Structure to design on (505 residues):
């Protein structure tokens, strides 16, 4: 059926006086006629038994009013062969069911339910205009206010910042076979100048995104996603796709065109690094990390950063004496070492040398000082700090316990190497006390971007429930304390002045 340029198609009827508008639909049986455009339809399935509950529809009438429709499973075969998204129909006889209170996709109090005597037919060449679509947009603040309420499913439009952890500076590589197997795509999306939100696309939504994204000659920027569910996952607001979700990009529909125009006139927003984007590890340059640290809304966060090691800083401690149990810093007591971690049960402990080496690094954007902690140092050198310290004193038995151990060759040999670092910024960085950044882990340059496994596992466990029925996504993130975390907060402030001591082993 031919569409007008304004996105509307003409329809008419020989019996206009019998037509009921959606605004007049009430609860109960109706022996009257409806005329509407079929915006979208999808299956509803039982999340446990996977049985088909029915076919849900999203309909819009000539006044632009949207209402939800429902076809019971036993009647789907009667109507499905003639159903086509975007076509205009006439429906005689229906029942006005009460709209469900949870996961609604329309504001109307009623749902148009197809009954035993319902008859639907396609309308052609009639002079009434129908809008092609209608969206219900929410901002970040709206999603926050309605998070976990299991109410209406609203739409979001914004510009993409990351796609499966990949920036849009270089076109992200999306493998359709891999996406189909993993059943998910995670997109970081920012609506205007609001905080960046994590958007999880599952099953058909992930597949649709991949195909649409790859079909564009130029990397698409703007994304519109309909009927998303809001959950707080790992303490962070997250949006998840549902079975009713549809996707649009750049120039697909008028709202994406309007947003694309707005984004082009606000390039500073497109290039902005928001503090809210980094609640887990994200790939940023050194300059972007420094930019993040200066923002008032910045909070403790983990990043990935690929950089080249320029030097190992001499004249400062490259290790500290840590508790053998929790690896927190240990201090001298009257007769033994005392763990400074109040949560550690080993008050009197045996000291073990742990890495705390300061290195100079750079990338194409900036230079920085990174501080290697614990396993991060071992992953770079292949040697435990305690082993290196022990070897030094065995070779230099005349040195006293308070002698400062020089930087070992194992550390010096890493100069010139390029690595992907997992780094953490803390309140010390935000306060301006130091720009030294703590490294918690060394990642292989071939390691794919992090996928927030702990969070996604919880979502995946109920993704069938999400995609098929619109039931909520349940998930929690079990945080795990880093034994060196307390130490890492002190490292950046005193790394320049601390002096290594011989451990009491």
């Amino acid at each position: 059926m031919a569409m007008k340029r304004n996105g509307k198609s003409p329809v008419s009827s020989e019996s206009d006086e019998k037509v009921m508008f959606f605004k007049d639909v009430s609860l109960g049986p109706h022996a009257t006629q409806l005329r509407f455009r079929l915006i979208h339809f999808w299956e509803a399935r039982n999340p446990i038994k996977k049985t088909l509950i029915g076919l849900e529809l999203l309909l819009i009438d000539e006044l632009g009013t949207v209402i939800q429709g429902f076809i019971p499973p036993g009647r789907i075969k009667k109507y499905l062969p003639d159903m086509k998204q975007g076509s205009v129909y006439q429906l005689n006889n229906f029942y006005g069911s009460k709209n469900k209170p949870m996961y609604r996709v329309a504001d109307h109090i009623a749902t148009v339910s197809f009954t035993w005597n319902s008859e639907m037919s396609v309308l052609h060449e009639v002079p009434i205009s129908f809008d092609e679509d209608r969206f219900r947009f929410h901002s970040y603040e709206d999603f926050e206010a309605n998070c976990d309420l299991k109410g209406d499913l609203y739409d979001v439009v914004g510009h993409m910042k990351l796609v499966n952890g990949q920036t849009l500076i270089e076109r992200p590589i999306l493998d359709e076979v891999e996406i189909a197997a993993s059943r998910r795509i995670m997109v970081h999306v920012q609506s205007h100048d609001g905080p960046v939100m994590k958007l999880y696309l599952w099953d058909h939504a992930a597949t649709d995104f991949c195909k649409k994204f790859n079909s564009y000659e130029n990397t698409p920027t703007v994304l519109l996603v309909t009927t998303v569910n809001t959950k707080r996952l790992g303490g962070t607001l997250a949006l998840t796709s549902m079975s009713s979700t549809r996707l649009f990009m750049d120039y697909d529909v008028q709202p994406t065109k309007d947003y694309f125009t707005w984004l082009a006139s606000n390039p500073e927003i497109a290039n902005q690094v928001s503090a809210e984007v980094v609640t887990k590890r994200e790939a940023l340059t050194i300059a972007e990390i420094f930019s993040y640290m200066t923002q008032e809304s910045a909070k403790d966060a983990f990043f990935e950063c690929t950089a080249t090691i320029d030097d190992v800083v001499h004249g400062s401690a490259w290790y500290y004496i840590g508790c053998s149990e929790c690896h927190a810093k240990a201090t001298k007591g009257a007769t033994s070492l005392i763990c400074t971690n109040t949560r550690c049960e080993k008050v009197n402990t045996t000291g073990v040398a742990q890495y705390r080496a300061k290195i100079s690094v750079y990338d194409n954007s900036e230079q920085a000082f990174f501080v290697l902690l614990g396993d991060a140092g071992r992953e770079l050198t292949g040697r435990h700090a305690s082993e290196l310290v022990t070897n030094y004193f065995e070779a230099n038995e005349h040195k006293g316990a308070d002698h400062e151990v020089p930087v070992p060759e194992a550390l010096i040999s890493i100069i010139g190497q390029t690595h992907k670092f997992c780094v953490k910024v803390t309140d010390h960085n935000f306060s301006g006390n130091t720009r030294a950044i703590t490294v918690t882990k060394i990642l292989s340059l071939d390691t794919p971007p992090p996928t927030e496994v702990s969070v996604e596992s919880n979502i995946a466990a109920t993704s069938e429930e999400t995609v098929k029925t619109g039931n909520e996504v349940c998930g929690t993130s079990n945080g795990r304390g880093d034994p060196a975390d307390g130490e890492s907060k002190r490292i950046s402030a005193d790394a320049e002045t601390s002096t290594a001591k011989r451990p009491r082993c």
